[in-house]
């Protein structure tokens, strides 16, 4: 008897939660704000309690769910035409990269690290920070990326020159190094991932990546000095791509008065 009661409760709660989620609107499904996440977790916890405790009346679970539904729908209606309330409940987007410059202070405020940034850039088919004009961290945690003008146009021009399209299944490519002065940036015949390799992150040199490209800290220091950087700690992010192109983002220090 208890088994059948649990089965009936489970089926009933399933349809009730499905109805509640539909009434909350597609916003709930498409984007989880802090409020959405809290309500979803609370509904799930209430459902588990009601299903497991068959001695508990069903209305003790259904009523709190309806109250949460009213809170969600009421909040959505109030914030629809009131930006201040909307910012209060959902927060506001944060500009992580503006005009190709990483905003370190915003990243710290949002507790958003470089690994998160590089991951989400790759998810947006961006392999280098140097190709980004603006990157905006939305309230849902999604990173919206606006590439620099001409990036995709240049890529399409290269594809239309008559050269064969590279095999998308090839994970590594042979790199033809170019020279800067008398020294080659990338050793001849060297092969590595197409994605840029971080050489400095948060002011710390990634020695294992320098070993991969057969370079030393002395070489890296000389390259940075050509760009006016004298200390590794002054570099927030430094990467090198498969063409040997360096991207350097400098830490902006606040002036003390």
Would you give an account of this structure?
The protein is an alpha+beta fold. The chain folds into 3 domains: 2-90, no CATH class; 93-156, CRO Repressor; 172-257, bsu07140 like domains (CRO Repressor, 2-Layer Sandwich). Helix content is 46%, strand content 18%. It contains 10 helices and 12 strands. A hairpin with a 2-residue loop joins strand 1 and strand 2 (101-102). Mean pLDDT is 76; it is low at 162-193. Residues 81-240 form the YetF C-terminal domain. It is found in: Cell membrane.
Feature tags:
257 residues; 46% helix; 4-stranded antiparallel beta sheet; CRO Repressor; 3 domains
- How many β-strand stretches? 12
Kindly report the average pLDDT value: 76
* Count of helical regions: 10
User: What is the multimeric organization of the chains shown?
Assistant: single chain
Largest sheet, described in full?
Answer: 4 strands, antiparallel
| Shape descriptor | elongated
Cα gyration radius (Å)? 26 Å
Determine the strand fraction and express it as a percent band. 15-25%
Our measurement of the CA-to-CA distance between the termini, rounded to an integer number of angstroms, reads 77 Å
Structural class: alpha+beta
Number of domains: 3
Tell me roughly what share of residues is in helical segments.
40-55%
Physical arrangement of strands within the biggest beta sheet: 2-1-3-4
Protein name: YetF domain-containing protein
Main location: membrane
Biased composition (Basic and acidic residues): 152-161
Membrane topology: Multi-pass membrane protein
């Amino acid at each position: 008897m208890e088994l059948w009661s649990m089965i009936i409760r489970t089926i009933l709660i399933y349809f009730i939660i499905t109805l509640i989620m539909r009434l909350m609107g597609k916003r709930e499904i498409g984007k989880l704000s802090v409020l959405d996440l809290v309500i979803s977790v609370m509904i799930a916890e209430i459902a588990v309690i009601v299903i497991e405790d068959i001695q508990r009346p069903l209305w003790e679970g259904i009523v709190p769910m309806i109250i949460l539904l009213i809170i969600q729908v009421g909040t959505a209606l109030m914030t629809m035409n009131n930006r201040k309330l909307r910012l209060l409940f959902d927060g506001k987007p944060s500009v992580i990269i503006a005009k190709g410059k990483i905003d370190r202070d915003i990243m710290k405020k949002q507790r958003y690290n470089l690994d998160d940034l590089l991951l989400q850039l790759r998810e947006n088919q961006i392999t280098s920070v140097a190709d980004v004009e603006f990157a905006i961290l939305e309230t849902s945690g999604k990173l919206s990326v606006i590439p620099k003008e001409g990036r995709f146009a240049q890529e399409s021009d290269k594809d239309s020159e008559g050269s064969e399209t590279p095999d998308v299944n090839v994970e590594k490519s042979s790199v033809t190094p170019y020279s800067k002065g008398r020294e080659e940036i990338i050793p001849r015949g060297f092969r590595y991932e197409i994605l840029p390799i971080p050489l400095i992150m948060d002011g710390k040199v990634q020695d294992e990546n320098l070993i991969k490209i057969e370079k030393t800290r002395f070489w890296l220091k000389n390259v940075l000095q050509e760009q006016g950087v004298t200390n590794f700690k002054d570099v927030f992010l430094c990467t090198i791509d498969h063409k040997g192109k360096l991207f350097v983002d400098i830490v902006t220090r606040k002036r003390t008065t």
